[in-house]
Amino acid sequence: MLKNYFKVAFRNLIKHRATSFINIAGLTVGISAAVFIMLWVQNELSFDNYHQDAANIYRVKTKLDLTRNETWIWESSPYVLGSVAKKEIPGIQQYTFLWPGYMVTVHNNGKLISEKKYAYVDANWFNVFHYNFVGGSAESFTKNPFSLILTQSTAKKYFGDADAVGKTLKVDSVNYQVQAVVKDNPANSSFQYDILMPVEAKLSNPHEKEQATHWGNYNGLTFIKLQPGVSTALIAKELTAIVRKNNKGSENTTLSVIKLKDMHFESDLQSSSFEHGNRRLVNVFMVLAVLLLATACINYVNLTTARASVRSKEVSVRKIVGAGRLQLFGQFMSESLVVSVLALVFSVVAIQVFLPAFNTVTEKHFTQPLTSGTTWLILLGTLLISFVSNGLYPAVLLSSFKPLIVFKGRNALNFKDAGIRKSLVVLQFGVSVMLIICTMVIYRQLHFMQKVDLGYNREHVFTFRVPWTALGFDEKKRVSMLNSIANELRGQSAVREVAQSGEDNFYNNGTKMSGSMDWDGRPADYQPSAATLAADENFQKMLSLKMKEGHWFGKGNVDQHNVILNETAVKQLGIHQPVIGQRMKFNGDSGVVVGVVKDFNFRSLHEKIGPMVIYNHTDWAAAFYIKTAPGNTAGAIKAAQDVWSRFVPEQPFAYTFLDDGYNKLYHAEQRSSTLITAFAGIAIAISAMGLLGLAAFAAEQRVKEIGIRKVLGASIQSIIRLLSADFLKTVLIANLIAFPVAWYLMNKWLQDFAYRIHISWWIFAAAAIAALLVALVTVSIQSIKAALANPVKSLRSE
């Protein structure tokens, strides 16, 4: 019987080729899109789950309660915390410490290579976290303070196919021995480090050791493995007590713990060493996967039920010759299964073809997902959903026909069935319109962020930093070297302007601890925080910063201890008028306020402009800002590289344009915009295919009516209006339903930005027009074909 089911199913597919193509094509696109989305979702939700005992591993986090309802939350904690906590808190099984690095230079065959993905770890790291060793061991790594562990790809980069274990690699000025090689970090790991070094190597520097062993130095991340069932609230309380006991004046410091598995979605940190996900975005894309699959399934349901009247005689004959309703139900479910399986096969091909493009957009590294059990679970899950969704309602409807009604010439379908089909079309186009609106709002916000006046000019400016290892700690030598580099750069014809700062990442200006500022009139209990920026006398002119009052720093050391405030700092700190000349003690130096600069966005537009203190300590201003001469950007970069090679020959030259740094702030939004645009296009394509099929069937069902109307003198335009009107009304209803949903979603999304666009009415109008045009063009294809048909042929059978 099953064989006969599938034989009949294939016969019907071939018989109704156009409908079959629309169903299979729509499902293929829908399943492929849903699988791609769920691959990404599964990757995001599985971050760091692969570690053994991941459920019992936590990271310590620090909360500082400042004055006037201001709170900082850090992922870092003191280096000395772990060892003390292990001794004093019984519930801690093990601890380990991670010290993320900034950048090191690896010397390899005469080449200088910058490595940013490196970190220092202590001896317990591999007792807490899982790594797959392909050479060497963790034991040998912990015995030698100048050891290295490399990932496989990094080992191959430096040593080719030779065994890297035992080889020597020069990092900065120190020779390290490779003690082990591990498999590359999984894509769902927070720890994307290619080089691991012992903490002892960093502590071999007496200055670093003195800093690290101070309880007030929050320089790295402490992880603890707890015994099952231990109260995390109690652990947090005891950790807080340890810090407060050992670090006087830390009564406003509270420690807590976060599960390793929850770390990827942390959103309350001041800054982080890791890339974090967005749980809200994950939820949105999960819903989107369901909606895309649903729009594809709707095509099958609508086209199958629309053709029910054509197949009603077939069903009636089968019932008369003895077929039961269960058998007919099985027949129609088998047709659904055949269509779903064929769509799945084509989806597997599509996934392989489009995987590289998907990896590029999402910046993931899915390799051969079809060899993964997880991928096949997702594929089989979508197959089951599509099979049941496609087949259930049509099978119940078609198997319920009564032969007597059919043979009397009455329509086997009722008004309710047509209403269900229209409702499903409304859902399809509603999803499409919603995605169109979301795409337009996101694009407009991104465009706004590119064009908004930030309060400074970032064009044609690139930055680079001279590393501390090249400068040393001798102040005279350091200042002399920085001045020499600046003078050399100013002498280059391709360089228009040169300025110095303490930070090469303009959008990452650090925030000083509260209590580092004092001024006349400050309340005794008010210890505010403020972003800080070290800048020389040329910084304001280069970036076109605008002064509200006072002046910028003068040449030389005339303003060495003076400061400049932004407008927000004047307001929030409550500086008395007149501001200029007010005493300001900052970082232990006493000076006066010499100027107020107009507010400028020194961070992401997600954040409101906060208070900023600009100071003139150029002895540590190791970051150079270069404005290129018009049309000679390449020449300016080459000139800077030549100067660098003369002063810092042991380090590779690396630079960043301010434009690139600014765009990087909104990289996640750009990626989301690309994905949503693609999925909006997919939803519209699926909906249009379904509408095309319904329009073709509607024209086929009314072919005699159209013939009679043409004989009676109806124009082609009137027939097109007749066939298009119902479909366009349905799409219009879809617009009205999609509008409030899209407005709500986009309004929630825009709330994450301190500076945002307003959702204009014309966005909804444009989305509605786009959807109506797609529907009109789609339906018109069949309407024009029907209107141009010869009425004699359609009436000949009457």
From TrEMBL:
<feature type="transmembrane region" description="Helical">
    <location>
        <begin position="337"/>
        <end position="355"/>
    </location>
</feature>
<dbReference type="Pfam" id="PF02687">
    <property type="entry name" value="FtsX"/>
</dbReference>
<dbReference type="InterPro" id="IPR050250">
    <property type="entry name" value="Macrolide_Exporter_MacB"/>
</dbReference>
<dbReference type="Pfam" id="PF12704">
    <property type="entry name" value="MacB_PCD"/>
</dbReference>
<keyword id="KW-1003">Cell membrane</keyword>
<dbReference type="InterPro" id="IPR025857">
    <property type="entry name" value="MacB_PCD"/>
</dbReference>
<protein>
    <submittedName>
        <fullName>Putative permease</fullName>
    </submittedName>
</protein>
<feature type="transmembrane region" description="Helical">
    <location>
        <begin position="675"/>
        <end position="698"/>
    </location>
</feature>
<feature type="transmembrane region" description="Helical">
    <location>
        <begin position="281"/>
        <end position="303"/>
    </location>
</feature>
<keyword id="KW-0812">Transmembrane</keyword>
<feature type="transmembrane region" description="Helical">
    <location>
        <begin position="21"/>
        <end position="41"/>
    </location>
</feature>
<feature type="domain" description="ABC3 transporter permease C-terminal">
    <location>
        <begin position="678"/>
        <end position="788"/>
    </location>
</feature>
<feature type="transmembrane region" description="Helical">
    <location>
        <begin position="759"/>
        <end position="781"/>
    </location>
</feature>
<feature type="domain" description="MacB-like periplasmic core">
    <location>
        <begin position="20"/>
        <end position="241"/>
    </location>
</feature>
<dbReference type="InterPro" id="IPR003838">
    <property type="entry name" value="ABC3_permease_C"/>
</dbReference>
<feature type="domain" description="MacB-like periplasmic core">
    <location>
        <begin position="493"/>
        <end position="640"/>
    </location>
</feature>
<dbReference type="GO" id="GO:0005886">
    <property type="term" value="C:plasma membrane"/>
</dbReference>
<dbReference type="GO" id="GO:0022857">
    <property type="term" value="F:transmembrane transporter activity"/>
</dbReference>
<keyword id="KW-0472">Membrane</keyword>
<feature type="transmembrane region" description="Helical">
    <location>
        <begin position="422"/>
        <end position="443"/>
    </location>
</feature>
<feature type="domain" description="ABC3 transporter permease C-terminal">
    <location>
        <begin position="286"/>
        <end position="396"/>
    </location>
</feature>
<keyword id="KW-1133">Transmembrane helix</keyword>
<feature type="transmembrane region" description="Helical">
    <location>
        <begin position="375"/>
        <end position="401"/>
    </location>
</feature>
<feature type="transmembrane region" description="Helical">
    <location>
        <begin position="719"/>
        <end position="739"/>
    </location>
</feature>
